[in-house]
Specification:
With 340 residues, this protein is mainly alpha-helical. The chain has 3 domains: 75 residues, Dna Ligase, domain 1 (2-Layer Sandwich); 81 residues, no CATH class; 111 residues, no CATH class. It contains 15 helices and 6 strands. The strands form 3 sheets. The protein has a two-stranded antiparallel ribbon with strand order 1-2. The longest helix is centred in the first third of the chain and has 25 residues. It starts with a helix and ends with a helix.
Length: 340
């Protein structure tokens, strides 16, 4: 009789454990989804992760979760990072998310025309990387070379786009992704067109960066490109204000005549040819324009103060345009001062 009772008790115990195990592994902790942010740190033990999940109410039993991890040989396979998990997920789904590394992806949009320094600041504001790390890596010759870039720095090669990274992504990986995107954009077709002009990759990116800073209008990019191509052929200084500004440390925002005479490597008023490197990260349209200049003879352009430019072939025509649009700009400024 005693043996029978012991046997029955054992059956009840086994049945209870089986039922609890089923409840702990086969069913979600709650029927409704309550989301929780879970951060798995680098090198965290599986036991720690199981306890953390239980504390947040995502699993019923850390013990059974650990058993499942052991059975599936997943204890050493979980990936670090931030996870968005919810209480309506079954434990197996949670474990699968941790093993597959389905971490939260944070997005950051890098617009066209930013310098590497500005991109570093943007990434820091988005909590993607420290600005100092970006500056250090962008100027690290060994790192630049490891990315297959034939330049001294990454200026111009951090391609403008929207990127998605998990939190705590290494700054090296962030910059590597941006350079990889540049290489995808700079297609063999563009390389072939560059070769036809006798231009290297650095030449193209440098010219494209100037085009990017000179205009925000896609329809004008090939025209701006043509002006600079024509000037390069005639060995006339490019005379691009953005290049001068780039060469001035701590630029005040007001470009003066004295600035145009400064002896810096990037001053295209005092030096012939392209500057020694890019002055910003150009977008695809500017890169395309750099090797697809319009078939025109323009040598000059001046802002019309509405986002567009007036293009001229001769200096006389250009001077008339300058007088015309500067006069309009002066009249507007006077009207504003008078109204104030």
């Amino acid at each position: 009789m005693k043996q029978a009772l012991t046997f029955v008790g054992a059956l009840v115990l086994v049945g209870t454990m089986a039922a609890y195990g089923y409840r702990a592994l086969a069913l979600p902790s709650q029927a409704t989804a309550s989301h929780h942010l879970v951060e798995v740190t680098e090198g965290a033990a599986f036991k720690e992760v199981a306890n953390l999940l239980a504390q947040k109410g995502l699993i019923v039993s850390p013990f059974w979760f650990r058993i499942m991890g052991k059975v599936q040989d997943a204890e050493r396979k979980i990936q670090p990072g931030e996870y968005d998990l919810h209480t309506a997920m079954r434990p197996a789904e949670i474990l699968n998310a941790l093993v597959k590394g389905r971490v939260i992806q944070y997005s950051v949009t890098v617009p066209e025309g930013l310098t590497a320094r500005q991109i570093g600041k943007l990434l820091e504001e988005a909590r993607m990387a420290k600005q100092t790390d970006v500056a250090r890596l962008a100027a690290d010759a060994a790192f630049v070379k490891s990315l297959g870039i034939e330049a001294k720095t990454l200026e111009g090669y951090l391609f403008p786009d929207t990127y998605h990274f998990p939190r705590r992504t290494k700054p090296e990986d962030v910059l590597r992704a941006m350079v990889h995107r540049f290489k995808e954009a700079y297609t063999p077709e563009l390389r072939a067109k560059a070769a036809a002009f006798g231009m290297t990759e650095r030449h193209v990116v440098t010219l494209a960066s100037i085009i990017e800073k000179e205009t925000g209008r896609d329809d004008e990019r090939p025209l701006i490109s043509a002006v600079f191509h024509n000037r390069l052929k005639k060995r006339v200084p490019l005379q691009s204000d953005p290049t001068v500004i780039y060469g001035i440390r701590n630029f005040s925002g007001n470009l003066t005549r004295a600035d145009l005479s400064r002896r810096t490597p990037f001053n295209t008023y005092t030096r012939l040819g392209l500057p020694p490197g890019p002055i910003a990260s150009p977008g695809l349209r500017s890169i395309q324009a750099a090797v697809n200049p319009s078939p025109v003879k323009y040598l000059y352009f001046v802002s019309k103060n509405d986002g567009s430019h007036h293009f001229s072939v001769t200096l006389e025509e250009h001077n008339r345009a300058v007088h015309r649009y500067q006069k309009k700009r002066g009249a507007r400024r006077a009207a504003v001062r008078k109204a104030a």
